[in-house]
Automatic annotation (TrEMBL):
KW Cytoplasm (keyword) present: no
Domain Protein kinase: 30-291
Organism of derivation: Giardia intestinalis (strain ATCC 50581 / GS clone H7)
Alphabetized InterPro entries for the sequence: Ankyrin_rpt (IPR002110), Ankyrin_rpt-contain_sf (IPR036770), Kinase-like_dom_sf (IPR011009), Prot_kinase_dom (IPR000719), Protein_kinase_ATP_BS (IPR017441), Ser/Thr_kinase_AS (IPR008271)
CDD domains xref list: PKc
UniProt GO molecular function: ATP binding; protein kinase activity
Pfam families reported in the protein's UniProt record: Ank_2, Pkinase
UniProt: ATP binding residues: K56
Protein's name in the database: Kinase, NEK
Stored SMART domains: ANK, S_TKc
PANTHER family according to UniProt: GH07239P
Amino acid sequence: MSDGNRDPATKNAEDDTKIVPTFSLDELNRCKVQLLGRGAFGKVYVINGFPSLAVKEIWLNGQPDRLVEITKFELEALSRFSHPGVLKYHQVLANGDFLYIIMDRYYGDLKEFIAKYRKNRKSIPREVILSILKQLVDALAYIHDPTKADVNGNALPGIIHRDLKPTNMLISEDGDRVVIADFGLCKDAQHDGITFAGSPPYMAPEAFIHRKTGRASDIWAFGVIIYELATLELPSFSQHWEPEKAKEFFVDEWKPDLSPVKDEFIREVLEKIFILDPAKRPKAKELASLLQASDTSGDKQQVQGTVLETKCMSLETALKDANVRISALERERNIMSVEIDVLKKELEMKSIKIDALEKQFTRITEALEEKTRQLKAEMDQQREEVERWQKELDEALKAANEEIASLRKELTTKSTRVDALKQQLADAINKSDKLYQLVLMKDSSWTPLMCAAFLGDIETAKQHLSDKDKKNSDGDTALMIAARREHENIVELLDPTDWNGVTALMRATDRNDVKAVKALIPFQTKRKADYIKINKLEMYEGTALMVAAVCGNTEVVRLLVEHERDMRDSEGWTALMHAVACGHADCARLLVGKEVGMQDEDGKTALMLAAENNRVDCVKLLLEKESGIQKSNGAISLIMAAARGHAKCTKLLLKKEAGMQNKNGLTALMVAAQKGTYRVYKVITRERRWYARCQETDCPYEGCK
C-alpha cells in the first residue's frame, strides 16, 4: 500500500511555494480534519489550511520498545533526506503510542496512472515512460547511496526500500513528477536482510527461495515496474511463489519472456535487470547513466537540460528545507521576544514588591533581635536548671539500669529451670498416662514384649523378641499392640519388611489374620513387593490386596479395597484379575465395582481371565460390564472360552459377543472347529439355530440383535 497521500481535488506539493511551518501537537490536532486514505502502516489526513501538505498517523501500540525506538530513529533519518524523487518528510512528532509525519501531498500514484492507460487501451508514450524511469532510478540511486549527506553535511544511511511497486510511487497532477514513498519496510543498505517482506509480484527470486533481500532486490522490483509501464501488464513470472516452486522455476538457464516489450532499448534494459544472480544485476547508478543516455533524438542539449532540471529540483528542495528552518527560527525569535517583554514587566512588579518586603523585613528583624535578647536571658537561666535536673536523672537512671540487669539475669536463670521442670512434668504425665492405660488393659497374659510394644520402648522390646508370636487373653500379639499404638519402629522390629519388599501387612493377609490387617492398614498400604510367592503362584510388584484376592480372603479384601484399588502388578494385573483367575467369586464381587473395565499389558480383562480359566460364576458377574472388549490381538472372551473348550462359559458369553471376530476374521465357531472342542462347537451351533428362529420373532435375546 502507498502512504494514501493523494487527492485529485488538490494541487501537488511541488506547486505550493509557501514555506512549510513547524507544527506543535496541539496545532496538528486542530488542523487534521479529513481522512485521505489508509496505508499498511497508518492513516493519512488533510492538514486544514495547507493544501500542499498531508500528515501520516502511525499507531505503535503493542510494538516492542526496541522496535519503536528503531522506527523513530529511521523516520528521523528519512526526514533529513533531500531529493526531488523522494517523498519529503518535513517533520516527525511523537505523542504516546502515535507518530505523526508531516509530508508533501500528491495527486495520485503510478498504479492509477497505468490503470488509466489500460482502461483507454492506449500505450504510455515512450518519452513519458523514460521521463518517469529517469526520475525513479535517480531517486533509487540516492536512496541506496551510503555516502550521501544532509544539507548540514551530516552522514545519511543508505537504505533498501524492499517494497517498490506502483502504489508506492506518487505522481503529480500533470504527470511530470514522480516520487518514491512508503518506507515502512526499509532497512540498512549496507547489509542484506534475511526476511520475507514486500509485495509478491514485485519480489525477486532470492526473496522467495532464500528469504533474502538487498539492493539488487529493489532493482528487480524496478524492472517489473518498467515492464508494467511498457506493456500495461505484469510479467508472467511475477506471482507469489512457494520456495520449492520458485527453485523449480528459476533454474540457472532461466531467461525472461520479454516478447511483449516492443521497445528495443527498454527490452535491453530489462535483460540486464532480470538476472537470477543478484550480484550481476546493475546498480541503480548504472541504470541512471544508461537511461540518461537513452534520448532517441540524440540531442545532447536536451539531455543536459534534463540533468540541469534535476539539479535545479534538488536545489529547490534544499532551498525549501532552508526556508523551513529559517521560518522556524523566526517564529521562535518572535515567541522569545514576547516572552522577554513579559519577563521585564514581571521583573518591575517584583522589584516593587521586593522594596516593600525589605522595609517590612527590617522592622521585623529589629523586633526579633529585641525579643531574642530577652529570650536568651530566660533560656540561660532555664538551661542551668535543666542541666542540674539532667545530672540527677542520669544518676537515677544508671542505678535503675543496674538493678534491671540484675533482675533480668535472675529471671533468665529461673525461666530456664522452670522450662526444664515443665518438660519433666510433661514427660512424667505422658509416662503416667501410658502406665495408667497399661494398668487398665494389662492382665497376667501380657508379656514384657507386649508392654514394651504398648509403651513404644524399643530397647526393652529387643530383649524379648522370642515372645513375638504369643497372644494375650484378647488374642492380640505384640505386633498388633504396637500397630494400634502407632509405634511403627516396633512394628518393623517385630515383623520387618524383607529384602523383596514383603511387609507385615502382606504376611498377615496371606495367613488371613484380620485383626493384624486392621492394625497394620494405617502404616503399610499402597506398598508393592518386588517378589511374592503364594503357594505355587509367583507375583512381581504385588500388593497386599492382590495377596488377599489370590488367597480368597474375603474379609481382608473388604478391608483393603478402598486403600489399594486400581493398583497393578508388573504384568498389569489388578486384584480383580487375580481373584477371577483363582476363582474367588466372593472376592471378585467386592472388587468389581472398583476395578472393572481395566486391561493388563496385553489388553486382557478380568472377564477374559474368567473365560480362559472356566470361572463360570465370575463370567456371570462380569458379563454385563466387560463384554465386547478386545485384546490387542483382537481376541475376545467368547473366543478364549471356545478355544479352551469351556462350554458353560461359551454359552453365557454368546449372549453378548456372538458374531464378533478376532483380527484374523475368525469367529468362536471357527476357533472351536480348529481346536476340536466338540462340546463348545455343539453349543454354538445349537445357539445359532435358535438365533435363526429368533429373527422371525421379537426376541429379547441380545445376541439376536
